[in-house]
Amino acid sequence: MFSWLTGAKDLLDILLVATLIYQGYLLLENTRALNVLRGILIFVVVWLLASYFKLATVDYLLSKAATVGLFAMVVVFQPELRQLFERLGRPRGREDQQAGAVVNEIARAVEHMAERSIGALIALERRTPLGEYAASGVKLDAMISAPFLEAIFARNAPLHDGGVIVKDGRVVAAGCVFPLQNQQDGVYKRYGTRHRSALGLSEGTDAVVIVVSEERGSIRLAQNGRLSQDLNANELRDKLRALLYEVKS
Ligand SMILES: Nc1ncnc2c1ncn2[C@@H]1O[C@H](COP(=O)(O)OP(=O)(O)OP(=O)(O)O)[C@@H](O)[C@H]1O
User: How large is the ipTM?
Assistant: First the structure.
């Protein structure tokens, strides 16, 4: 009885650790944190070598740096850590329902705007925090709806220039400036700045960016630094559903 209980406890222990590591990996994938993790690994290897070869001064300095570094990491990665705990505590069913409603509202707005050739740029935040780009625009924190998105991008509306950032079903900010894709890449050279800023943001982060062309009335999706073919509203809805559900699994 005792050994059975111990075995079950060990199994639970292993499962919990595996879940934590997997969630941590999901959070870090495609984020700046992954680069930092590589840096930490190099640091640890150097520290181990210094300790193995008994290099007393290097060992002492690195041990002090590690203590300070630990606190610095908590400060620097505060947004990522907050996201991790939020995700762990959020009920899954409600999350899926919310993602479905958000996708419908976005697809409806985008379809209307494409029909009337109204240019639009909408970035959907996934794991990489987009706070620095949101800070370049006007903070909104508003519930998402098709009429609201259309009002933002309406010609002559004060915030129609630049991009909108959507996070967890809310419009975080509008009028945001995204980084332009490197112009040396010949493939997308002929595109204008709206498309190139969608490409640039999707290249440096895991965001999915929707572009409605004012010139052509087309709908395209930028992801991983690549533009999709022209999409209709149903195709957009399907792609967004897959992408937004996939990020939560
Ligand atoms: N760095 C940027 N970040 C966000 N939005 C931008 C950025 N640069 C340009 N834009 C938006 O793109 C608009 C200009 O689009 P432009 O015509 O140059 O691009 P395009 O890719 O040809 O798009 P369209 O097909 O709609 O004309 C600007 O008015 C602005 O709203």
Answer: 0.95
